[in-house]
Write a structure and sequence with these properties.
By secondary structure, the protein is of the alpha/beta class. Helix content is about 30%, strand content about 15%. The chain contains eleven helices and 13 strands. Strands 3-4-5-6-9-10-11-12-13 form a nine-stranded mixed beta sheet, covered by helices on one side. The chain has a two-stranded parallel sheet with strand order 1-2. Strands 7-8 form a two-stranded antiparallel ribbon. The longest helix is centred in the N-terminal third of the chain and has 19 residues. Bound molecules: S-adenosyl-L-homocysteine and iron/sulfur cluster.
Length: about 400
């Protein structure tokens, strides 16, 4: 990408810096690019291609653009993976497609279901790298929590994923594929009409990894998921959680317009520097300014501030009051997450009394502040518990620092 597109020449200096920083972040993301989409027989996976790319593939094999539209419908509306079952396509073309293309899904390496109904999959990419995906059912709907990276460059102290180095970014195919494979598991194909009554009705981009450090693939995947002629999930049903990659938040808001969740977790820079190390780069004030600019945020569509409750670390009454002060004027709600322990984790969950007191202060100030009920703890599927065995091969040229 061009670091300084023509219009940026007239931008104020601060914006030019942000643009330069965005370019750096995107260049860094490219270093951890996923492997190509071809299988052993050289066939290309059609999942994860944009509409334009799909049309280009059809043009390449001498087919008309409407074929791309037909395929889109079969792949994302019907959930069909077998070209031979795509009945609106004549047999000779079915064979031609099958010779050159596949309609893939990530491989399922393991699947577990919690006593509370939460389901977790361990998915395996073609290169053997693994990520986890979680489905959290509610009575008449449910959210799929998808991952965006194998590991994470950041190392938030309370997070299990943060102990796993970044191995690589996931491709758009692997990101969309997690949701499609979850739908396979519940047989929710073809895509139900309208958005009501779906079992897999929402997406939270809150699994492994920092989505805004893999922005291009995440954006492509979410654009596919939001397409009306396919999966058709609206941006209101998608929430992207970031630990605060400020320069990318503006782009995410402008281009995707999905709901935003921000992992705040501390109200003072000193503490946030320690538990969310990205704070040293983008401190609380800059983060909250980016939230104020976030397009589409309103009282009807609030920004969620996630706050993991760590016993004796960030859960005092004074901190609750400070949180209220910081959020003043922002269309915000607060999600209090009781800390979910993992093997070797250095913190304890706040006591129920501390949780209640904290929630009451935030609530009395007019911010909704539900305490998130932990789901799937028995199978290590709750927030911050995801981790896989994938390790990065040694490469001397890559460093660990974010962007
Ligand atoms: N990287 C993104 C999204 C993934 S983490 C982010 O940090 O926002 C999803 C949420 O789970 C974040 O709010 C994260 O801070 C929280 N989390 C991480 N570890 C946790 C733990 N052990 N207990 C509870 N929540 C945790
Ligand atoms: Fe990465 Fe988010 Fe975990 Fe921090 S909380 S280490 S950003 S996945």
């Amino acid at each position: 990408m061009n670091a300084f597109p023509p219009h940026s020449r007239v931008l104020p200096a601060a914006d030019q810096m942000t643009e330069a920083e965005r370019s750096r972040i995107l260049a860094k993301a490219a270093l951890f690019a996923p492997p190509p989409l071809l299988d052993e027989q050289g066939r290309r996976d059609l999942v994860g291609l944009s509409r334009e790319e799909l049309a280009a593939e059809m043009a390449e094999i001498g087919e008309k653009p409407f074929r791309a539209k037909q395929l889109w419908h079969w792949i994302y509306h019907q959930g069909e993976r077998d070209f031979a079952k795509m009945t609106t396509i004549a047999k000779p073309l079915q064979s031609k497609l099958a010779e050159r293309f596949t309609v893939g899904r990530p491989g399922v390496a393991a699947e577990q279901t919690s006593t509370d109904g939460t389901r977790k999959w361990l998915f395996e990419g073609r290169d053997g790298q693994k990520v986890e995906t979680v489905y959290i059912p509610e009575e008449d709907r449910g959210a799929v929590c998808i991952s965006t990276q194998v590991g994470c460059t950041l190392s938030c102290r309370f997070c299990h994923t943060g102990t796993q180095k970044l191995v690589r970014n996931l491709s758009a195919a692997e990101i969309v594929g997690q949701f499609m494979a979850a739908r396979d598991s519940y047989g929710e194909w073809p895509t139900p009409k309208g958005e009501e009554g779906r079992m897999l009705s929402n997406i939270v981009v809150m699994g492994m990894g920092e989505p805004l450090y893999n922005y291009e693939n995440v954006a492509k995947a979410l654009t596919i998921i939001m397409d009306h002629e396919g999966i058709g999930l609206s941006r209101r049903r998608i929430t992207l959680s970031t630990s605060g990659v400020v320069p990318m938040m503006d782009r995410c808001g402008a281009e995707l317009g999905v709901n935003l969740a921000v992992s705040l977790h501390a109200v003072r820079d000193e503490l946030r520097d320690e538990i969310v190390p990205l704070n040293r780069k983008y401190p609380i004030k800059e983060l909250l300014d980016a939230c104020r600019r976030y397009p589409g945020a309103s009282n009807a569509r609030r920004i969620t501030f996630e706050y993991v409750m760590l016993r004796g670390v960030n859960d005092s009454e004074a901190e609750a009051h400070e949180l209220v002060r910081l959020l003043r004027g922002l269309p915000a709600k607060v999600n209090l997450i009781p800390f979910n322990p993992w093997p070797g984790s250095p913190y304890k969950t706040s006591t129920p009394e501390a949780l209640q007191r904290f929630a009451a202060i935030v609530n009395d100030a007019g911010y909704s502040s539900p305490i998130r009920r932990p789901r799937g703890r028995d199978i290590l599927a709750a927030c911050g518990q995801l981790k896989t065995e994938s390790e990065r091969a040694r490469r001397a040229t890559r460093d660990e620092n974010p962007a």
